[in-house]
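The data are quoted verbatim here:
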Amino acid sequence: MQQKPLLEPITAHQPWVLPARMRSKLDNHLIGKNLYITEIGFYDEQNYFGRDVLKSNIDYVLVYCVGGKGWYKIANKKHTLKANHFIVLPKKTDFQLGTDNTQPWSLYFVKFNGAIGEAMYNYLLRDKKIEQTTPPLVGRMAQFRDIMHHLELMDNLENLLYANFRFYSFLGTFTLTVFNYMKKGVDNIIERCIIIMKEHLHENLTLDELAKKACVSASYLSALFKQKTHYSPIHLYTSLKIQKASQLLKVSKMPIKQIAEEMGYTDQYSFSRSFKQIMGTSPKKFRESK
């Protein structure tokens, strides 16, 4: 069955394209030159969107499939692009895009550039994979609508700048470790674990104890956290402890030893070592810096 977006998609229309004169203005703007959109559009399943991009293309490309499925072809190799998958491509890349006629896709197509364009491309290219997955987010779609609204007022440089500032946040949703709390499954397991961790910051749970409370095996929980967050469960648990300890150091006059005990540490030395590993400074220096 064809997958549907979380929100009603914006009305599909011709893509917005940055005029050459405005591109020149952005290239010479102290802030605007860093990152800017050169083309952006949303295409629903009624459009049967396809595109040939030639090697002469000077911009980076992001293609995000929201529903249905399609394909992309690079170096004569054809790959399927399904819902909740996206690809990010470097400039001067020859490729083709096309929809699956039995399950036409709906997708976002974006081209971008700027002084940090290459850095942003590398940032999006996690694990050096061209194709990646991302959970559907209501906030991402809201940001897209806001970007499109302001880009339509392109004769106003301030609106262009605003839209491109929002673009940073839009791109960030593709790399952040975020979970769809409305879904059942592995994301709910992680969310449940985080809640358990927050409820037991005053203790010192082991991986086995955490897994038992989450009703899964320790090996499964560890593998799941590595896959979804790139951290171990205990690393995240420790980070939550240190985050809470940081708040106590800033807003209270509790002795550091007492704060360590509140966070489940049996001695101040172990607490200080963990604190410095995560915060980059000692608890004492952190408190003095407030």
Observations:
- The radius of gyration is 23 Å.
- The chain has two domains: 16-172, 186-288.
- Residues 202 and 263 are 4 Å apart (CA to CA).
